[in-house]
Amino acid sequence: MTSDRDREISPPPSDPDAADPRPFPDSLCHRCAAPPQYIRTQRSTFIRCPILKLYPPQPVIACEAFESLEDAKKSDGS
């Protein structure tokens, strides 16, 4: 039997009312312009910040290096 914490991470659902499959869904890491790296083991998932080069304790609720993904898309003209 597979527990919730042993499952693979998939992209966010396209349906906003669907359950969020990401670990720590409230974390700023998921909304950051620097795409986080998900490190999965059999029992844990770690989120690595490519800017800070570390694995911050989750969920991240404040970060000095945070840049909104939406703001980055707007400035790129996307």
Key terms:
10% helix; 10% strand; little secondary structure; two-stranded antiparallel sheet; 78 residues; 2 strands; single chain; disordered N terminus; 1 helix
Please provide a brief summary of the model.
The chain has one helix spanning 69-76, and strands at residues 37-40, 45-48.
Question: SSE layout and pairings?
Answer:
Elements: E1 37-40, E2 45-48, H1 69-76
Antiparallel strand pairs: 1-2
Could you tell me the radius of gyration in angstroms? 14 Å
Mean of residue pLDDT values? 79
* Global outline: globular
Weakly predicted, low-confidence segments: 1-10
Describe what this molecule looks like in 3D.
This protein has 78 residues and is low in regular secondary structure. Helices cover 10% and strands 10% of the residues. It has one helix at residues 69-76, and strands spanning 37-40, 45-48. Strands 1-2 form a two-stranded antiparallel ribbon. A hairpin with a 4-residue loop joins strand 1 (37-40) and strand 2 (45-48). The longest helix is centred in the last third of the chain and has 8 residues, at 69-76. The termini are far apart. 8% of the residues are buried.
